[in-house]
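Still learning. Show one?

>
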Amino acid sequence: MTGPQPAGPGRTDPVPPATDPLLARQAEALDLFGRRVHAIRDDQWDAPTPCADWSVRDLVGHLVTEQAWVPALVRDGDTVDSAGDAFAGDPLGPDPVAAWDTVADASRAVFAEPGALDRTVHLSFGDMPAGDYCAQLVTDLTVHTWDLSRAIGAEERLPAGLLAFAVREVTPHAAELEHSGLFAAPEEPPPGADAQTKLLCLVGRRP
């Protein structure tokens, strides 16, 4: 398929498709999670998720906050300290779906800027290449798309390309994820497990 394509469920202006493989994965992950956000019914925002103690609203708020940091960290070169309390408070406001669409579009645009993936971002635990930071965000979006899908009764099967990408990203760090407080202890995948089962086991989920 060629020519400009709509980039996400909340976008009205067409944008050119990503040509960098990492940006293509980012766009796929943003779009996939965005479709799940748009599918949340009004009575599901307080529903539980596979993430301990997180409701659907908490989960979406986590992803909105993650994406909201991208312009400050990647484009502006801010540090967590210099940003201060810019991202404190309720990230979703009165229209959670619109909040997601806004930060997703901004994150997509910032990473697509020339040279953005070659920059350095200053995270709370140290500096990181922006490309690695983007890969982390893609992986988090992929895992949490499954969480949100299970919470709202949506399709849980994830795209093969995103699964392969996330498994590669998570595997070297699976033992460390539990200590972040955001993931349960990894489980041993059963023999012959497919990529989705492997990913979910690596991040402490029960498929």
Observations:
- Residues 21-160 form a domain with the Four Helix Bundle (Hemerythrin (Met), subunit A) fold (CATH 1.20.120.450).
